Amino acid sequence: MDISTTTDVPPPSPQPAVTGQKRTSRGAARPGDRIFLGLSRGSGILLLVVMGAIAVFLTYRASLAISKDDGNFLTTFEWNTNLTPPVFGIAVLAFGTVVSSIVAMVIAVPIAVAIALFLTHYAPRRLSGLIAYVIDLLAAVPSIVYGLWGALILVPHMQGLYGWLDTYLGWTGLFTWNGGAPRAMLTVGILLAIMILPIITNVSREVFRQVPRMHEEAALALGATRWEVVRMSVLPFGRSGVISASMLGLGRALGETMAVATVLSPDYDVHLSLLDPGGGTFAQNIASKFGEATEQGRDALIASGLVLFVITLVVNGAARAIIARRKEYSGANA
Amino acid sequence: MKLQRKNRLRALSLGAVAVSGALALTACGSDDNGDGGKASGNTSASAGAGSVKCDDAKGQLLADGSSAQKNAIDAWVKAFSQACHVQINYKGAGSGAGVTSFNQGQIAFAGSDSALKPEEVAASKKVCSGGQGIDLPMVGGPIALGYNVPGVDNLVLDAPTIAKIFDAKITKWNDAAIKQLNPGANLPDLKIQAFHRSEDSGTTDNFTKYLIATTPDNWKYSGGKAWQAKGGQAASGSAGVAQGVKQNSGAIGYFELSYAKDITTVSIDTGAKSPVKPSTDSATADIAAAKVVGTGKDLALQLDYKTKADGAYPITLVTYEIVCDKGNKADTLPATKAFLRYIAGEDGQKVLAQNDYAPIPDEIIAKVRTTIEGLS
Between the CA atoms of B70, B73, B79 and B82, what dihedral angle is there, to the nearest 10 degrees? Predict the structure, then answer.
């Protein structure tokens, strides 16, 4: 088919150079190119339209709910959408989402960076391949499986750690424990840390692998030990890559649903101690409340989802800003 | 090119293997079902299937709603679809979701733990042309209080004590109020961990309705599907609550009886001669005292939570099937009617007790049967 059309239509080469240039800039001269251009442009526009439609719909439904809310949407410590008028607020959810993610990051990032360094600079090649494979497998486990594992195995085994933290760090106020089942933010944080470990490790490993050989060899030539090489050339080079890897992990931690819903014992109060059962996250709350929610309840959940979206947007924006400040880093995670 | 062709061939043969494998497997699957039916031929489940009247029921029925009655529906569907060529798909996404899809006209009937509210009845008039949605009580069940206290085998509690425990007013197992109800028991100095549901649930609704009805001074919350009291532990689903009770020494929680497999349950001191254990019989005895409060063909029940009758377990729930009294869709009406007739029939109700549910008492189920015959 292509052959016949190209023979019928004069080939593009004899045309004047000026129009030719114009053509290449728009990239549509031959029918195939034109169709492809149309398709890709259409897809791009369709994406924008779909996203816009979703945004309009969600904002509309959310505003319906918020206009009926008898409490303050941002500060109320309650979620009761079946009352008339309904009373609900996102304060506890926002607090819980941020706290559980911070706990997860504090635990996961150092471990992930350590694993990535080990894989790229210390481990024998064979072992490194095997470990990388196992870590990839961790990422493939569905989150509900993590949730069940957390509820059945992690929670009962946390008692000892909770007791220890209460005895030695109870004075900080962050680690007071009243002896309840350990279905609290710390357990959730640990579970989330395990879940986001693979993505941070993998991206960090790719970044560390791209450290220019010359940097390391130069450092070695100056008599640096292996640790000094890591500290002077690998870590500074990989810093923004590690940051963006962490942000990917953070994004997953912020939005994790089923694992949190299975492990946490939610309520609508802010608990300062990480060991107090209670609190909640946006995604967990949506999963818990959706099944029996009325129309009104669903709108309220959509409103809370929009807040999560805004938080995620802010986090990603911050990450981009940090990365953009360090121009010398050349997007090894792309 | 050659390589590609080879790949394509390989893909084709792989596909063929997959398809034939799937066919073989599904063949096995239906064989299994057949065997299952034959094996259970002696039990009343299949005996019940024999007496199913199919009329001209055929096709597919979509239904959704309460997860509390999902196990009962599954047992019924198994027996019913062996007799009639009707495929019934009950999703069990929750009472709220069931009523919503019913009022959008997406399903033939909905299952719900609570009767239709006036605004829901109003909305149903759009779907049921010339009629409205009605509640048919079909499945009863005791809500058991399971506990895990080492050395205590036969715990007795009454309504005020239960309310105080779940409201975190009583925090130790050796509290004077509990001691008074259990003079012989060796109650330990152990912290109470009261488990409730973390998601909205009909079980929570019915449990708190009981507390509100019997001891309003000790339970000052407005009730509803969401848990309102502060303190205690929350877990998702009846299974999650049961798990929490099993795992934690000092725990107590509420769930449908079928989840109390290896958990000891509380006997309730209702003021009757002796404390009542949760069982399908004691729940049916309680439902027998219920009043029909629905008007017209609606058979919504009001349970008697304050019952003092001997052997009547007061914390029960009744789940309904919701259908249109008039104006059911012509293509699903025969199948809906045949299925409802079967589950409200003697055989259908017998299946309930085998699955830890309580059958609906004779007087009420008789009314349900009459109503089903009048559906149009």
Answer: -90
Check which CATH number belongs to the domain holding A148 and give it: 1.10.3720.10
Cα torsion angle, A156, A161, A164, A165, sign? negative
Pairwise CB contact (< 8 Å): A79 & B226: yes
Question: How many domains does chain A contain in total?
Answer: 1
Position A4 in a domain: no
- Nearest by CB to residue A180, choosing from B201, B230, B233, is B233
What is the pTM (predicted TM-score) of this model?
0.76
Contacts of A79 in chain B (CB under 8 A): 226
Q: Which of B95, B243, B248 sits opposite A292 (nearest CB)?
A: B95
Contact in structure between A121 and A234 (CB atoms under 8 Å): yes
B335 annotated to a ligand binding site: no
| Cα distance from N-terminal residue to C-terminal residue, chain B | 65
Q: Residue A333 falls within a domain, yes or no?
A: no
Task: Output the six-digit token pair for A78.
Answer: 């309650």
Cβ distance B251 to B245 under 8 Å?
A: yes
Q: Which two tokens stand for residue B311?
A: 């052997």
Asked whether residue A36 is assigned to any structural domain, the reply reads: no
Q: Name which of B96, B235, B247 is nearest A292 (Cβ-Cβ).
A: B96
Q: What pLDDT, in 10s, does the model give residues A147-194?
A: 999 998 999 899 999 999 999 998 988 898 888 889 999 999 999 999
Measure in Å the smallest separation between the Cα of B110 and chain A Cα atoms.
13
Where in the sequence is the domain holding A272, given as residue range(s)? 47-328
Domains of chain B as residue ranges with CATH: 60-141+290-301+318-374 (3.40.190.10), 143-283 (3.40.190.10)
The reply to whether B41 touches chain A by the CB within 8 Å rule is no
Q: Is residue A300 part of a domain?
A: yes
Tell which A residues from 265 to 324 touch B, by Cβ distance under 8 Å. 265-267, 269, 277, 287-289, 291-295, 297
The Cα B264–Cα B274 span in angstroms is 18
pLDDT, tens digit, for every residue of B168-194? Answer: 999 999 999 999 999 989 999 999 999
**Is B27 assigned a ligand-binding role in the annotation?**
no
Asked if the model's pLDDT at residue B93 lies above 90, the reply is no
